[in-house]
Amino acid sequence: MSLPNCPKCSSEYTYEDGDLLICPECSYEWKEGELSQAEEQVVIKDAVGNILADGDAVTVIKDLKIKGSSSVVKVGTKVKSIRLLTDSSDGHDIDCKIEGIGQMKLKSEFVKKV
Questions:
Q1: Residues near 42 by Cβ (< 8 Å), separated by ≥ 6?
Q2: Which domain holds residue 67?
Q3: How far is C-alpha 2 from the chain's CA centre?
Q4: Residue 110: which residues within 8 A CB-CB, separation 6 or more?
Q5: CB 31 within 8 A of CB 21
Q6: What is the count of structural domains for the chain?
Q7: Residue 89 · residue 43 · CB < 8 Å
Q8: DSSP β-bridge partners for residue 106
Q9: What confidence category does residue 1 fall into, taking pLDDT thresholds of 50, 70 and 90?
Q10: Can you give the residue ranges of the Protein YjdM C-terminal domain (predicted)?
Q11: Strands, DSSP E only, in the chain?
């Protein structure tokens, strides 16, 4: 019998413990064929708790250094047409294009919905 991969981290090393399936890599536990509504639909919120959606416009609320560059995304920079990333493991859950800088990923905790 083949066990399903972990729905949270996609690990193939899941195992059974009674009626639960357990992932040894991320410690996630679930029942086979059962996911709660919260896990099926990921909700991404901005720094003040507003729910974000694809296509929203946001404003950066903190100076953000760009890794590998001397450039900085300044406070108040407006970003239009964001795209949400639900499967990001590094915490960057917004994909966007910032004018004058280009394509980059942001963390939702550093933006506010316009």
A1: 86
A2: 57-113
A3: 29
A4: 47, 60, 61, 62, 64
A5: yes
A6: 2
A7: no
A8: 94
A9: low
A10: 44-114
A11: 15-17, 20-22, 29-30, 58-60, 64-65, 72-73, 78-79, 83-84, 94-98, 102-106, 111-113
Q: How far apart are the first and last CA of the chain?
A: 50
Residue 26 contacts residue 19 (beta carbons within 8 Å)? no
Residues 105, 62, single domain; the answer is: yes
Residue 65: what residue type? Answer: K
Return d(Cα 28, Cα 22) in angstroms, integer. Answer: 6
Q: Say which amino acid occupies 20.
A: L
pLDDT tens digits, 17-61 = 988 999 999 888 888 766 544 455 678 999 999 999 999 999 999
Do 99 and 63 lie in one domain? The reply is yes
Hey, what are 30's tokens?
A: 């679930």
pLDDT of residue 38: 43
**Main-chain phi, psi angles of 110, to 5 degrees:** -110, 15
